[in-house]
Write a structure and sequence with these properties.
elongated; Complex I assembly factor TIMMDC1, mitochondrial; mainly alpha; membrane
Length: 226
């Protein structure tokens, strides 16, 4: 195999060489870390969107219920408070959900595109996040026509630059970027697989030599008898 001729340190680093690896790079875990991060960020974005849209709606609905229920009769004060809370809770669920799925979808698409660009280019740059933001913004504003697409493109790019810069700073503070971690794990797995393959190859060579010696002994004995 091609890996047999390569030293453990000669790890293929270019994008054209990586698909030729004799083993998948995701054997160490069931799901790629990038996929897990996208799911986590989408869940977090959905939770933040729910709170962002639901809490103001809860307060407004509660105030509106109190304002329009001055002439109504309640069994006691607790009944009135519970009725106001129920009205606010309905608005919290309704408007929180509207914001939740939009924010979750935006974050998921943004991270998917930016991560895909980083993996394809094998480097993480601000341009990846700007492009991801522009694409996502344009996609969300597509229903408004060309003007909406242009506005979403500009807004998404403006959002992607600071968001990407913040993510890169957080990764730097952690001591290792996601790209560096991915390359390190891929290199370690490559070297481990190569060492295992060379170990099996050496065992095969020893067995083959032993078998050859065993077959050569009867021929030597026959030659002596003749």
């Amino acid at each position: 195999p091609p890996a047999a001729a390569a030293a453990p340190g000669s790890f293929p680093s270019t994008r054209a060489q990586r698909p030729a690896l004799p083993f998948p790079c995701s054997e160490r875990q069931r799901y790629p870390e990038e996929t897990v991060n996208i799911v986590k960020s989408a869940f977090t974005g959905g939770l933040v969107g729910w709170l962002y849209g639901g809490l103001p709606a809860f307060q407004q609905a509660r105030k509106a219920f109190i304002a329009r229920s001055h002439g109504e009769l309640f069994h006691n004060r607790a009944d009135a408070v519970q009725s106001a809370h129920r009205a606010g809770l309905r608005s919290f669920i309704r408007y929180g959900w509207r914001w939740s799925w939009r924010v979750a979808a935006f974050v998921a698409i943004f991270n998917t595109v930016s991560t895909g660009l980083s993996v394809y280019r094998n480097k993480t740059t601000i341009s990846n996040f700007a492009s991801a933001g522009a694409f996502t913004g344009a996609l969300f504003r597509m229903h408004l026509g060309l003007q909406g697409v242009a506005g979403g493109f500009v807004f998404g790019a403006a959002f992607g630059i600071p968001a990407g810069g913040l993510l890169m700073i957080m990764q730097k503070l952690a001591g290792e970027t996601l790209q560096e971690k991915r390359n390190r794990e891929r290199r370690e797995l490559y070297e481990q697989k190569l060492a295992d393959w060379q170990s099996r190859l050496s065992v095969t060579e020893v067995l083959g030599q032993t078998e050859s010696n065993a077959q050569g002994r009867p021929e030597t004995e026959r030659a002596r008898e003749s």
